[in-house]
Structure formats: C-alpha cells, structure tokens
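Q: Trace token order:
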Amino acid sequence: MATTANTGPHAGGSTPPKTSTDTRKVAVATLIGTTVEWYDFFIYATAAGLVFSELFFKPAGSEFATLVTFASVGLSFLFRPLGAFLAGHYGDKIGRKAMLVLTLLLMGGATTLIGVLPTHATAGLWAPILLVLLRIIQGISAGGEWGGAVLMSVEHAPRNKRGLFGSFPQLGVPLGMLLASGVTALMTGVISPGDAFLEWGWRVPFLLSIVLIVVGFLVRMSVSESPVFEEIAEKKKQTQMPIVELMKNHWKLVVLAALVFAGNSAAGYMTTGGFILNYSTNPDGPVALDRTDVLLAVSGSAALWFAFTLVSGFMADRIGRKKTYLIGFACLALTVFPLFWLINTGDIWILFLGMALFTVGLGLTYGPQAAWYSEIFPASIRFSGVSVSYALGAIIGGAFAPTIASALVKATGSTTAVSAYLLVMIVLAATATMMLRDRPGIDLSIRNQAEQEVGATIFDKRRGVSTDDAVSASASASAGTRV
C-alpha cells in the first residue's frame, strides 16, 4: 500500500481537531452517546430474559413463550440494515453528527414508550404487537447509530491513536450492559423484589431512559462535525448514491467485514441477548440461580468486558488491528466450552468466573473494530460501509443467537451444542479476519480516496496512489522536464 509523505501524529489523516482537548471531548461524547443507546437496547434484552415471556407472550405456553421472546430480541437485528442504509446514505451526504442525534432520539423514545406499554393481561394481542414494533424501532436506531459514533471518534483522532480513540464508542456496549444489568439488579433486589418487579418494577429501567436521552442529546450537540466530512462537504464530494456505490464496488469487503463481526456478535449475545440470564435463573432449569445474583455477575463481567475493550484499543495501535483480533478469537475459542461448564456448576462465583474468562476474547475482538472498519472503506462511502457491515454482522452472528441457543438446549438437553455453535462462528470470523489487510495510519481524508479504494483485502494486489503522492510525482516530473 502507498503511504503519504507526511509525518506527525495527524499527518496522513484528515484535518485535525483544533486541540487535543477537542479530540478527547469527541471521544467522551461518543462514549456517553453509545452508552445511552446500548443501555436502551440491553434493557429490552434483560427484561426479555426475566419477565417478557410472562407479561407479553404467556398464551404461547412456557417453553414456546421463551423462544418467541428471544425471537423478538433478534427481530430488531433484521431491521438494523434498514437503519444502516438510511443513516449511511444521509451520513455520507449531510454529515455524521446529524445522524447521531437523530438515532439517539429515536432509540430513547422507543425505550421510554416500552415502559408505559400495557401487558397482555390488559391489552390482549395488541400488547406483544406494540412491543415488537417498538423493538423494531430500536433495531433501526441501533443500525444507524454505530457508524456515526465510530466515524466521529476515529476521524477526529490522531493517526497513531485511532485504535485507542476508536475503542471509546465500543466501550459504550459493555457500559450500557453494566448500566442495564445494574439498574435491573437494583430493582429486583432492593426497590421492587419478587412480585413487585413483575407488576411494575420492570418498567422503571425503561422510563429512566428519558433522563439519559437528555444527557446524551446535550453531549452530542456540543461536539463538532467530523473533519473528514467537513472536507467532503467543502469540496462538494458527497456521493449521490453511496449505498449503490458501496454494494457495486465493495460488496466483497462488506461481506468479509460482516463475518469478522459475526463471531464477536454471536459470542457477545449469549450475555447481552439475555440467554445466559434466562438459562441460569430459570427455576425449572438445571441451574436455577437467584436472578439478582446473576444480574450482579453480569454487571461484573460487563466491567471486565469494558477493561479488555479498552486494552484492545492500546493493543491495536501497538501490534495492529488484525493481530489483536486473532488473539481475541483464540481466547474466545478456548473459553466457549469452559463457559457453560462453569455456569452449569450452579455456583454463582464460578458462573462469574466463566463469564469473566469469556470477556477477555469479547473485548479483544470488539475494541479495534472502529479503527479497522474506518480504515478499510473509502471516505465518500465510509459511513455506509461501516454501518452496513456492522448491521449485517449483527444479523449473521447475534440476531438469533439466543433463540438458536435456547432451541439447541431444548433439542439436546445440554449446552454442549451451544458451545459448538459458537465455536463454528468464531472460526468463521477468524478466517474472514485473515483475509483483510491491516491499514493503520492510512490517510482517511477525501484527498486520499484513490488509495483507500484498493488493497483492503489480501486478494486485492492493486496499489492506490494518494493525492499527496500524485502531487509529488507531478512536481518531480515537472522538475525533470525543466532540467
């Protein structure tokens, strides 16, 4: 790959923020915003694992109600590509910031409304229908939000610290899960234990979202637009149909990037999708642990997931995105079977140990994603590229992972098949990882579109020429002519 002749921490990148304070402000803003978004998203999965089968899907029967409930968790993933397509299209045309604010309001509004929904006992069939519709809105929002958040963070970052700054929006996922499980544990264990949680306590975490919306909105409105997009707008380089161009010229790259995320997504949604919570607290199941204890264990594992995601940001800048990913997938592969062996002991501390070991691989295969995705897609279609790849990876890996896991346990009577399923997804993702190239430090600006267009996979041997290289070559040729 060609590299620009520029040097310095911001060289070869877009126009840098005015100060390092601006860079940190953007990083913190993306962290807060994604935390709010994922709190909203995980509150649904947490409630689904605990009470939704009883409150909204009970007429389906106890076993089938659980499958339908987890299917409603996964259904939102099918609408993530719609959110990714819409946000990607307008994010590449009118800017990253506008899409971030819009998706935040959309997600928060849907979450708050779930908190006031009538249950099946009072509204009949309308209750699950409205619940699913609001979950679909959450899916559309989640599909559009991630791309804008990571691009704001990475495109503002110094070239030699993209891995670290790109990990900040990624940290919003474990923080959102920590917040969601922590608030729910407070409700089940202190404020509304027992039947009170089923009657009204489950609503409180959803209603709290309105407070988080206000905080997230104010923070996101306070940051400046991505310098890369500002340059695109200034030079009037917006692509008229970014999605069409993406799928026409870079569909293979989209598929590989989606498969990379699918491995992390399938593994992560064992926890974030509510399966482990439901499996370990089911009073008729083989583990039957206290729900508050398990929620606290989930909160603890989320804190460790946060730590390893942050560590992976440093690692990605030191040893590369690709090596960090492969180390992470190796860790996941080594822990998928021990995870459920430890959970099945029925001891809450051993369950926590299993989840803690699992978070090492989860963090290492999530933190570098923002920087790597941003570096493999061209500037003019970057929002569309990262958003669509992420959304498709979420469908392939996480959409119905809890539903598949529940069905496998029901069919086989054990969790061994679940571990085998996860191992297959991890191997598939690791294979896709090896087919992508590491491009740390590549110039992300629209000036370098020619270099960005080629060489992102190991199969593409073409060499792009950056604008700076072309100018240097032209100057040299002119000098030679004069001589």
User: Anything to note?
Assistant: Confidence is low (pLDDT under 50) at residues 1-18, 465-483. The radius of gyration is 23 Å.
